[in-house]
Amino acid sequence: MLLIDAGNTRSKFAWWDADTDKIEILGAIPHQSWLNDLSQPLKDLLLEVVSSRQLEREQQAIGCSVAAVQVMDTLNSSLAELGIKVFWQKTRAQQAGVTNGYTKEPERLGSDRWMALLGCHEQVKQNALIVDAGTALTIDWLMADGRHLGGWIVPGRQLMLNALGQGTANLKGITVNDIERDGLAAGLDTFDGITQGAEAALTGAIAQAIQLSGRYFSDQPFDVVVTGGDGEHLMRTLSVEFCRYDDLLFKGLRLCADNLNS
Amino acid sequence: MLLIDAGNTRSKFAWWDADTDKIEILGAIPHQSWLNDLSQPLKDLLLEVVSSRQLEREQQAIGCSVAAVQVMDTLNSSLAELGIKVFWQKTRAQQAGVTNGYTKEPERLGSDRWMALLGCHEQVKQNALIVDAGTALTIDWLMADGRHLGGWIVPGRQLMLNALGQGTANLKGITVNDIERDGLAAGLDTFDGITQGAEAALTGAIAQAIQLSGRYFSDQPFDVVVTGGDGEHLMRTLSVEFCRYDDLLFKGLRLCADNLNS
Q1: Looking at the structure, do residues B199 and B101 belong to the same domain, yes or no?
Q2: Taking phi first (over 0 means left), then psi (-120 to 50 degrees means alpha), and beta for anything else, what does residue B228 get?
Q3: Which residues of B are less than 8 Å from A136 in CB distance?
């Protein structure tokens, strides 16, 4: 079955083989590449990620989305063209043993964070601090018994660099792929001042969360569970022990797939 | 003499009385209030901040600016209308005992940061970690002997909240003045998740800088010198000892005033 993670800036795809119960990460498509360049319809981009052989075998897909409505409209119509019906999963108050910490308005918790919580609860039989470093850096506390204790949302690296460009007259146009170095040091020019500043803010937020975890997990052991494209880089700078799960969200979607046909 | 700090989002004014050598903070004018509302010319706003009695006594002003060119044009023409000639100060490689850490391109260091370095060197006879929490959060390392070791630039609180609004579909429109609480806690709704996330990133960056200061100051004592509107709030969350200087930048401008007539 096709698993879809429609994120803020790109959509990621994976294939769950129900026979082997294995999840294979297929690839990601940046939203800008199809929203700006209509010469290459999304349907063709999808066929570069998902093989037609897989699509013939299974016409159902399951996904979650925090993407903008324009992205969703195009994604749904392109998948329908390929004969695929998508079951979009919503955040709930309780599911698969996890209790949502947003007690007043559970549906307001991002569905990407919800799926990662479900996936983590199934994979990590331990208190977990989930660090998802993508377009935004999200941090969530999840107890071993499935209680979600809430979390944080911080602008990711590129959003931070953009924010300085917009808010000031002289600090424009730095992009993430210009950054190579791990570790923290004082910046001796504007480029390093800004890129190291973003690194300090992102790693600083994670360090604050790790410190707070003692209180939240009553000084019991916990795992730092890292996912998202920028996660590994940040943890190397922090030199903190962590376990990496690239498919945490997809593991959550796979759990939801069980209920599709039940 | 009128002292002017033309910042990213507002201009701040102070009066230096050369006889008493005292600096009186006069007030600030947000740039949007004159750029958007031409019905109230900047000249009138200035006269609400600076008394005509002061303007008659002294027709020279000294300032530094990181503001956009539209702001500077309006500011200069309005001050000229009031008969005031402004000596805008630029960042240098060396001045008043301070050596700029941007060795390759010293002029690229923000003049607001340069003035704060000059003011700090004169006021604080100690190694200093300067934390200026304004539109951007800037952090600078300054040795007791006047050597500047470089620094960081991080989006300030409102820029971080805006960044999430721009980079994601569902996290829009949170403003700084909605925030009351000190201290850090997991967010149990989207508002708290974002505002606490910004708090964690800003305090986390400062905490990372404090940690790095041991290395930069070779484990010698140092002061955490805090300035900028958001500084006190952040330091209360960090519960770290610090000394507050509201007029650090103006103290730097006052040092430059000595050379105006020499």
Answers
A1: yes
A2: left
A3: 164, 167-168, 171
What are the tokens at A126?
Answer: 């331990």
Q: Do A151 and B203 touch (CB under 8 A)?
A: no
What six digits make up the tokens of A259? Answer: 């209920």
Task: Please tell me which of the candidates B102, B155, B187 has its beta carbon nearest to residue A188.
Answer: B102
Paired tokens of B212: 């790095």
DSSP lists the bridge partners of residue A61 as A2, A86
Is the predicted pLDDT of residue A178 greater than 60, yes or no? no
Largest CA distance in chain A: 60
A100, A70: one domain: no
pLDDT at residue A179 tops 70: no
Residues contacting B133, CB < 8 A, separation 6+: B156, B202, B226, B227, B228, B229, B230, B231, B233, B234
Domain-located, residue B259: no
> Given an 8 Å threshold on Cβ–Cβ distance, is A163 in contact with B163?
yes
User: Whole-angstrom distance between the N-terminal and C-terminal Cα of chain A?
Assistant: 15
**Cα(B198)–Cα(B249) distance, integer angstroms:** 25
Percent of chain A with pLDDT over 90: 64
A91-136 pLDDT, tens digit per residue, is: 999 999 999 999 999 999 999 999 999 999 999 989 999 999 999 9
C-alpha B212/C-alpha B150 separation (Å) is 12
- The whole-chain average pLDDT of chain A stands at 90
Alpha helices in chain A (DSSP H): 31-35, 42-49, 52-57, 69-81, 111-123, 157-167, 190-216, 231-238, 248-260
What's the pTM? Answer: 0.93
Distance CA B207, CA B84 (A): 42
Strand runs labelled E in chain B: 2-6, 10-17, 22-30, 60-65, 85-88, 94-95, 98-99, 128-133, 136-142, 148-155, 223-227, 243-244
Categorise residue B27: left if φ over 0, alpha if ψ from -120 to 50, beta otherwise: left
Look at residues B7, B53, B2 and name the one whose alpha carbon lies nearest to residue B23.
Answer: B2
Q: Which of A12, A172, A128 is nearest to B136 (CA)?
A: A172
The residue from B41, B59, B88 where one domain ends is B88
ipTM: 0.92
Interface test with A, best of B153, B158, B239 (most A CBs within 10 A): B153
First to last CA, chain B: 15
CA–CA distance, B52 with A58 (Å, rounded to integer) = 79
Choose one of B44, B68, B88: the last residue of a domain. B88
Residue A262, pLDDT above cutoff 60: no
Cα R_g (chain B), whole angstroms: 19
Same domain, yes or no: A177 and A115: yes
Residue of chain A whose Cα is closest to the Cα of B238: A208
Q: How far apart are CA B64 and CA A30, in angstroms?
A: 42
| Structural contact between residues B224 and B241, judged by C-beta atoms closer than 8 angstroms | yes
Cβ-Cβ contacts under 8 Å between A and B: the total is: 203
